[in-house]
Design goal:
397 residues; Rossmann fold; 2 domains; six-stranded mixed beta sheet
Length: 397
C-alpha cells in the first residue's frame, strides 16, 4: 500500500462540517490538510453547491489529468443526477453529513490502495543505498562522491541522505553548514510533503541537496523512514543513502527499498568473512536483494596479497567495481571539505567513482508536472441544498 501521507483539500460549504472534517484529518496519521492556495490538491472533498455546474468540468479534468488524486463528494443530499455523472467520471466516494470518522478512514484506505496499484515506477527516483561490510571501509567517502558525481550531471536532482550510525559525518566531507536534519522531519512527520521537505534540506554550493543526520539519537522507526524515503524519491531523480552497516538479522528499510545496493569492502580476510555473512543474511530475508546488490572493493592496491579474482572466487560472486588506493588524495580532499571528484577530478579515486557511476546507468531526464488549473474556484461556494438524503454515507460509488 502507498505509505505516504495523503494530502486532502476541502471545498466544503457547511462551516460546522468543515470544522468536523479538519479535526478528523488532524487526528489521522495517513492524511494531512492542505490550504486553499496550495500548489497540490491531493484528495479533494467537495460539497456540491450552487456553482456545481461550473465546478464539475474542472473537477473531472483535475481527476482525469492526475492533478487531483481522488475526489470525494460530500453533503446532506445525494443528488442522483450528480452521482451518476460522478460515477461516469471516475469519482467513487460519497461522504454523508455528518461525516463519521470510520467512513472517512475507509475512504482514505480505498484511495491508498488504488494509488498503490497505479503508481508509475518510471516517475519515481532511484534509491542507491551505500553500506559497508564493516566500519572503516570508506562507505561515507563512496556515498558522498557518488552523490556529487550524479549531481554534476543535473544539479539539484540528487539528494544525499545521512543514515550512518552512530553519528553522521557527511557535513565534514562537504564543509556543509545546515540548520535542520531528518530529526526535524521525524518530530513532525504528519506535515511531510514536498514543500516541508525542501524547507529542511540543506544545499551544497555544487547544487547537491543533503538531508543530514541529527547529532545524536536513534534512527527513524520503519514506518517514518519509509515515508521519508518515498517522499525523497518523489522529489528527486536519485536518492543516495549513506547507510550504517546492518546487523546480520535485520533488513533495514533503506536496503529493502533500494533500487541498487552498493556494499563497500576491502580485500582482507575479515572483510571477506563479513561480506559472506551479510550477503547470505540479506538474500535469506529478501531473495531479490541478491539481484540488486553489487560489491565495491575499495582501496585496492597493486600486487596485494589478495587480488580481486581471488576475492571473487572466495565470495562466489562478482566484485562489480574496484576503487584504487589513493589515500593521500582522499585525505587531502576530506581535510578541504571538498569531494574527491571535485577537488581532484583527474585522480585515480575520482576516475574510479566515475567508472562506477557509468555502470549504474542513470535514468534519463524527465519532465516535472506542475499545477495549472484555476482550482481556487472550488473554494468560493455561496450556498447549498438542504433536501433529505438517501443514506449513502461513506459509500464507494
Amino acid at each position: 500500500m502507498n505509505n505516504r501521507v495523503i494530502p486532502i483539500s476541502l471545498a466544503v460549504i457547511d462551516r460546522e462540517q468543515r470544522d468536523r472534517l479538519e479535526k478528523m484529518i488532524a487526528a489521522n496519521p495517513m492524511v494531512r490538510l492542505v490550504g486553499d492556495d496550495a500548489e497540490e490538491m491531493g484528495v479533494l472533498i467537495y460539497e456540491p453547491g450552487d456553482s456545481v455546474e461550473e465546478d464539475m468540468p474542472h473537477i473531472i479534468h483535475a481527476l482525469e489529468s492526475g492533478q487531483a488524486e481522488d475526489v470525494y463528494l460530500a453533503g446532506d443530499v445525494a443528488d442522483p443526477e450528480i452521482l451518476i455523472r460522478a460515477m461516469r467520471s471516475g469519482i467513487r466516494e460519497y461522504l454523508k453529513f455528518p461525516v463519521e470518522e470510520n467512513d472517512l478512514r475507509a475512504a482514505v484506505m480505498r484511495t491508498a490502495m488504488r494509488l498503490s496499484l497505479t503508481v508509475d515506477d518510471t516517475d519515481k527516483g532511484r534509491i542507491l543505498t551505500v553500506l559497508g561490510c564493516k566500519s572503516g571501509v570508506g562507505t561515507t567517502t563512496l556515498a558522498v562522491n557518488l552523490a556529487c558525481a550524479l549531481n554534476e550531471r543535473e544539479p539539484g536532482r540528487t539528494v544525499l541522505l545521512d543514515l550512518h550510525a552512530p553519528m553522521g559525518e557527511i557535513p565534514y566531507f562537504l564543509d556543509l553548514k545546515y540548520d535542520y536534519t531528518w530529526g526535524d522531519l521525524v518530530a513532525d512527520i504528519s506535515r511531510l510533503d514536498a514543500t516541508y521537505l525542501r524547507s529542511v534540506i540543506a544545499e551544497h554550493e555544487s547544487g547537491l541537496h543533503v538531508l543530514p543526520a541529527p547529532g545524536a539519537g536513534e534512527r527513524p522507526d520503519d514506518h517514518t523512514l519509509v515515508l521519508i524515503l518515498e517522499q525523497l524519491r518523489q522529489s528527486y531523480d536519485f536518492v543516495v543513502v549513506d547507510a550504517a552497516t546492518p546487523d546480520e538479522d535485520e533488513l533495514p528499510k533503506e536496503v529493502e527499498l533500494a533500487d541498487s545496493i552498493l556494499m563497500a569492502m576491502q580485500l582482507s580476510l575479515p572483510c571477506l568473512a563479513r561480506v559472506t555473512r551479510l550477503t547470505e543474511s540479506l538474500a535469506g530475508q529478501d531473495p531479490d536483494a541478491d539481484r540488486r546488490l553489487r560489491l565495491v572493493a575499495n582501496r585496492v592496491v597493486r600486487n596485494g596479497s589478495i587480488g580481486v579474482p581471488e576475492a571473487a572466487e572466495v565470495l562466489g560472486r562478482e566484485i562489480a567495481w574496484t576503487l584504487p588506493e589513493d589515500g593521500e588524495t582522499v585525505l587531502s580532499a576530506l581535510n578541504q571539505g571538498t569531494p574527491v571528484v571535485q577537488a581532484f577530478p583527474k585522480s585515480a579515486a575520482a576516475k574510479g567513482v566515475q567508472a562506477l557511476l557509468k555502470g549504474l546507468a542513470p535514468r534519463e531526464k524527465k519532465a516535472h508536472k506542475k499545477l495549472s488549473l484555476p482550482f481556487s474556484s472550488f473554494f468560493r461556494k455561496k450556498g447549498k441544498n438542504s433536501d433529505t438524503n438517501d443514506n449513502l454515507a461513506g459509500a464507494a460509488l
